């Protein structure tokens, strides 16, 4: 079937179990063993799991306690984010040998637009193969890739032949590929949305395609338009080389639940200091401070305040956060606090002195 909308050559590169793979590369004694990057203590959280650990059901965002229960032989190592950033930069420099249109999504994945590329290679699939081989030869890690006509399809395809594989969805294959695709594999459809779609009789892309845009809007709000278009292979978002963050935050999960605001303020001061450090490093400030609180029963609450001026200073962030904390009585004891700053100066390119920071208090599982 011929598609009558603009088509690009997009590659989505996704590193395989990145944090865990870096740890196994740096310490050969860990190779081939079930490994989790994160905390093993009662409130610890798994940041990443090796494929050996995933066979036991260990996943990122899982509690360290549950991960250890699923895999008694699991080895925990603390995260080393500076090392991951160092490796990520080497990988990104490989990308730039092929195109300047590189949009990082995180340390371990990125979109590349190779419609016009520095190598003059008309085959995006061959470029992806070459990039993956270079990552392995020059860095020592494996990567997977998805190749197609837009970012949505490339993202979905990169997960198709993981680990250390790639999948190309050619223009003439787009519609059949999407119709056969399980709805839970659509990028942007999480577990809650997938369950809702199941109840509506939507199990595959073909089922989704049979629903009208009005039906999808009624049940999924603004996301209805997104689902209506992507299932038809339409996703016009361009690869943006300089993605501007919409918020900057920091958070902490506590080994013991906190029930006293005094103890919480002590923790918030440390979180605010970390947030200030991140803001100044990126030369960012913001106006909206958000406090995110996760209670011991895992319920979540956020409280926000927008200031008339930009802030990035620890003391100003903390003052605003204190006001949010005392804004209303806490519902329960607290297991996680986080502060984030949004409504950033980067959105309007204001000078550094006028930047606004949004603080968010978060709880982690």
3D structure, described in words:
The structure is a single chain. This protein is an alpha+beta fold and 365 residues long. The protein contains 13 helices and twelve strands. The protein has a five-stranded mixed beta sheet with strand order 5-6-1-7-8. The longest helix has 22 residues. The relative contact order is 0.11. The C terminus is likely disordered.
How would you sum up this structure in a few lines?
This protein has 13 helices and 12 strands. It has 365 residues and is of the alpha+beta class.
> Sheet bearing the most strands, described?
5 strands, mixed
| Molecular shape | globular
How do the helices and strands follow one another from N- to C-terminus? EHEEHHEHEEHEHEHHHHHEHEEHE
CATH fold-level topology of the largest domain: Dna Ligase, domain 1
Low-pLDDT regions: 349-365
Helical content, roughly?
25-40%
In percent terms, what proportion of residues is strand?
Answer: 15-25%
Quick one: how many beta strands?
12
What is the residue-averaged pLDDT? 90
In CATH terms, what is the architecture of the largest domain?
A: 2-Layer Sandwich
The CATH superfamily of the largest domain is known as: DNA polymerase, Y-family, little finger domain
Give the class-level CATH name of the largest domain.
Alpha Beta
Structural class: alpha+beta
Q: Given the structure, what is the number of helices?
A: 13
